[in-house]
Write a structure and sequence with these properties.
The protein is mostly helical. The chain is 70% helix and 0% strand.
Length: 360
């Protein structure tokens, strides 16, 4: 989001108005009322844009997965010999024998009421399958989100404030390396080293899944945490690098500001100048990135969840795509896109409140 793309939130009073400016509370309420009205118009425009985007995603999700060459009915029969009559019966059962336009109108009409149909492979309502897998995704990606956001901001701040030092060069090079590593490759590497074991390093963590089963109470929590370690490390290693680089770049831009020189001239310590002045201003681009990443918390991490056999939305999407289970992949695609769109819209709405300079 840039200042050029954001509508002006501050309106200037007409310079041709005759007579002296009114005094008193009404004079103060006038500009505030106009600013509030302009901001509400801005919010309404953003919400309208989000609604249009959501409808576009709804349409795209229907046609995109019908381009796949796989036949869902034949995939579900598992290669077993099936007569043409049985195949036709299954297609009729799933509604695949109807004209495409009829399938599309039924899909959009049902989706607008929250009904995404029944899964082909699980024979259960799609909404129920998504509801079952969502907590596992939120646990994994939510834990990783909190850790890599805090780590990235902290290391990015330290690196920028000590620009050019040995620690800055190491942090930047390490972050760039991890940022370029595919998450699924890093996950497989961690499984080989810390789950299977290699050389003197024994296998210490499970190769996949969310729990071993058979536990209860505090023991069950420890079991889940044990399974959580490697996938969280994978997500944190890749995610913190982006936050670090953005935070470092933003703080370096702020460090040349005259207001920091003024703060130092007033006798403030260097740590106070950084904490009270430089970092809050440098946080604005990082704030936007945090909301973008927040959308991915719900969207999950398909590759990481698949590598670690994590029973979340990402793993469910992979299973549905292998058929393809059209109702399920359509619904999951819509959920993933909706989470990202809503997170970006929320960032757009809140950003002008944090930085009044936006839109001037």
């Amino acid at each position: 989001m840039t200042a050029d793309s954001t509508p002006a939130l501050v309106q200037v009073a007409d310079a041709d108005t005759e007579g002296p400016a009114p005094a008193g509370p009404s004079a103060a309420r006038g500009p505030r009322a106009r600013n509030l009205r302009a901001y509400l118009q801005y919010v309404a425009a953003r919400i309208a844009g989000a609604i249009v985007s959501l409808f576009a995603v709804l349409v795209t999700s229907f046609f995109l997965f019908r381009l796949l060459p796989s036949d869902p009915v034949k995939q579900m029969t598992g290669g077993r010999p099936v007569s043409a009559e049985q195949l036709q019966s299954l297609r009729h059962q799933f509604g695949l024998d109807q004209p495409l336009w009829k399938q599309f109108t039924d899909y959009v009409g049902d989706a607008l009421t929250g009904d995404f149909g029944t899964s082909f492979q699980f024979h259960a309502p799609v909404v129920d399958k998504i509801t079952e897998a969502l907590p596992a995704t939120l646990l994994l990606t939510g834990t990783a989100y909190v850790l890599y956001t805090a780590l990235g901001i902290w290391l990015g701040t330290r690196s920028a404030w000590r620009n050019g030092s040995r620690g800055d060069r190491f942090n930047t090079a390490f972050a760039l390396t991890l940022y370029s590593v595919p998450s699924f490759w890093l996950g497989l590497l961690l499984i080989i080293v810390f789950s299977v074991g290699i050389g003197p390093i024994p296998g210490m963590f499970p190769t996949g899944g969310m729990e071993s089963g058979g536990g209860s109470g505090f023991g069950h929590l420890l079991d889940v945490a044990h399974h959580l370690v490697l996938p969280v490390i994978t997500l944190v290693a890749v995610g913190y690098a982006q936050t670090l680089l953005v935070m470092r770049s933003s703080l370096l831009d702020e460090m040349g500001g005259d207001y920091l020189t003024t703060a130092r001239a007033k006798g403030l310590r260097d740590d106070d100048v950084r904490r009270r002045h430089a970092v809050p201003n440098a946080m604005l681009p990082t704030f936007a990135l945090m909301f973008v990443n927040l959308g991915h918390v719900v969207a999950g991490q398909i590759l990481v969840e698949t590598v670690f056999s994590w029973p979340g939305l990402g793993g469910l999407f992979y299973q549905a795509l292998s058929v393809p289970d059209l109702p399920l992949v359509q619904a999951l695609f819509f959920v993933f896109a909706t989470a990202v769109i809503l997170a970006n819209t929320l960032a757009d709405v809140l950003y002008p409140l944090l930085d009044p300079r936006v839109g001037r």
